[in-house]
Amino acid sequence: MRFTALLLIPALVSQVVSAAEPAKLPQPFQSIFDLASAAPPEFTADALLRMVESGKLADRKARRELVEHAFQLAMSAKFAMRMEAVKGATTDTESGSLSQAYALELDVLSLRSRAVRDMLPLDPAKARDLFSQIVKPALAPLTCDDALFYQPSEFYLALSAVANGAFSPREKTKEEHVNFLLEYLGQASSPLQIAPLSTVIQSAAVTEAQRQLLWTRLASFVENLQPDDRSSSAALTEMSYTGVEAFAEKLRQKSHDCQSAPKLEKYWQSATSKQLLEGGKKLRETLNATAPVDWQRQLSDYLNLIADWTQDSAESDAVYYHEKCLVYTSLLDLVRGPQSDRILADYVDFVGNSGLYQQSPAEWFAEPHTVLTRAKPDSSRRAKVLEAYQRSGNPVLELEVALERAFRADAPSWAVSRR
Question: Which end of the chain has fewer CB atoms within 10 angstroms, the N or the C?
Answer without folding.
Answer: N
